[in-house]
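pasting for ref
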Amino acid sequence: MTVQESKLPFSGYLFWDVKPDEIDLDQQQAYVVERVLDYGSWVDWLSICNYYGLKKIKEIALELRSLERTSLSFIATITGTPENQFRCYKQLHSPNVHWYF
């Protein structure tokens, strides 16, 4: 099922790097959830909640490799899950290694 077929009202800018009508909401769940969490509007969030459900979004988000800090805080709060249980949490807190010459 594509975005166009499902008639989900995603923001036009959300999928800037692909043709929105070629997105498969069932096979590209992680891609869709990550984009909506990091760049989506409230309407985009409500759309994926209605399509996937909060439980499924949580399962997907737990395995995402990267999320913006605010997105991680949002999904952790709304699902009642500690941030350190998300895979991307370790990426966010990796120390910045400085180059010494």
